[in-house]
Amino acid sequence: MPPARDRLPVRRAGSAPSPDTVLIRRTLAEIEPVADKATSYFYALLFIRHPDLRSLFPVAMDTQRDRLFKALLTAAEHADDTATLTEYLSHLGRGHRKYGTLPEHYPAVGECLIAALTRFASDTWSEATEAAWVRVYTTVSQIMIDAAAEDEQSSPAWWQAEVVGHELRTRDIAVVTVRPEEPYPFLAGQYTSLETPWWPRIWRNYSFSSAPRSDGLLTFHVKAVPAGWVSNALVHHARPGDVLRLGPPAGSMIVDHTTDNGLLCLGGGTGIAPIKALVEDVAEHGRRRPVEVFYGARHDDDLYDIDTMLGLQRSHPWLSVRPVVSDGPTRRLSGQLTHIVREYGPWPAYDAYLSGPPGMIRSGVDTLVGIGIPSHRIRHDGIDELTTSSTDRG
Ligand SMILES: NC(=O)C1=CN([C@@H]2O[C@H](COP(=O)(O)OP(=O)(O)OC[C@H]3O[C@@H](n4cnc5c(N)ncnc54)[C@H](O)[C@@H]3O)[C@@H](O)[C@H]2O)C=CC1
């Protein structure tokens, strides 16, 4: 049988929604105001009917609840855009390997999902709606299962990595270096998911702060944020010798080496981490391309990586680093990162890279589009990846 993605009718965003999509969106619109209740009911049912699945999930399920509904909404939103849907679900399927998800778990989840929808979307539920959900869920799960099976041929489900360096840069920011047990291939600008021994099965995303190194070590910049369990553990408890688990690399904020365009980089707070990796990548590639970095922080003291960035600027004549402070007195550039960028330029032959808080990325994209950089030349990680509480990166 061909893989599930080849059995999807090829549709593109923009055409009229398919009959199944119309029914699915109707259900989701009815569920949305009671999404919390419906998701809690779904998990209660799943764990009562299939208690063996409980151990795949974190002890505290609060963030998990948002994630399921967000995934459903994303799938429904792109239901008629075959390419985007397949890419999203394949990524999700590969990412589920680290949780220990097996093909036989999918029917159990599907059956409880439909039971929860039947109960909480009773006004719009019908035989036709149920049939649409069964069809779509079958396709969705098959794409995820196929992607996981394909990935299994070439990569482990997760990597164990020992902490070999831990440097506290400010009261709440640490630079953490780990040594993976097996080689960990990734590209500069990408991120990974990370699980600590203190919070089993809670995974959070962190960008690599260096390009791949010959010694195989990986480094992350972590800011302890209020209620950020994983980030607090990494900043305040992790020590050399502790063993973490890493998921596969993800993200497309990578350098396009097929062009000579300059790079305009906006890094806010710990968002400077992947920008530093991009600079190293350009340096290693050996082609002289202008790289202009605007490094934003709220206060002077928050520019925890400024010495490294200025050191790189001294070594590389094609690199310019401009620190920008938004909230406190400073002798550096003062103001919002995005406003300052507008005062420089123009940026006709530049590709833009943005990394930082979701608000900064949103306003950064608006500003850059406003000053004429086409959106296909602006790269950043998915706002969803940043905004779901699954990401207490910092
Ligand atoms: N790949 C990525 O996009 C990465 C994103 N991050 C994210 O970066 C953030 C770092 O947090 P902090 O260091 O506490 O940052 P922060 O809150 O201290 O802000 C850093 C900079 O962004 C600016 N900024 C914040 N909100 C803004 C808004 N709404 N509009 C315009 N500018 C804004 C600030 O003025 C400051 O210059 C976290 O949310 C983390 O998840 C971290 C690493 C990688």
TrEMBL record:
Domain of life assignment: Bacteria
Cofactor: FAD; heme b
Family matches, as InterPro entries: Cbr1-like_FAD-bd_dom (IPR008333), FAD-bd_FR_type (IPR017927), Flavoprot_Pyr_Nucl_cyt_Rdtase (IPR001709), FNR_nucleotide-bd (IPR039261), Globin (IPR000971), Globin-like_sf (IPR009050), Globin/Proto (IPR012292), MRET (IPR050415)
An annotated Gene Ontology molecular function: oxygen carrier activity
Sorted UniProt keywords: 2Fe-2S, Heme, Iron, Iron-sulfur, Metal-binding, NAD, NADP, Oxygen transport, Transport
Domain FAD-binding FR-type: from-to ranges: 156-256
EC number(s) on file: 1.14.12.17
Domain Globin, first and last residues per copy: 15-149
Catalytic activity: 2 nitric oxide + NADH + 2 O2 = 2 nitrate + NAD(+) + H(+); 2 nitric oxide + NADPH + 2 O2 = 2 nitrate + NADP(+) + H(+)
PANTHER family attached to this UniProt entry: NADH OXIDOREDUCTASE HCR, PROTEIN RFBI
Protein family: Belongs to the globin family. In the C-terminal section; belongs to the flavoprotein pyridine nucleotide cytochrome reductase family.
Protein name: nitric oxide dioxygenase
Organism encoding this protein: Streptomyces netropsis
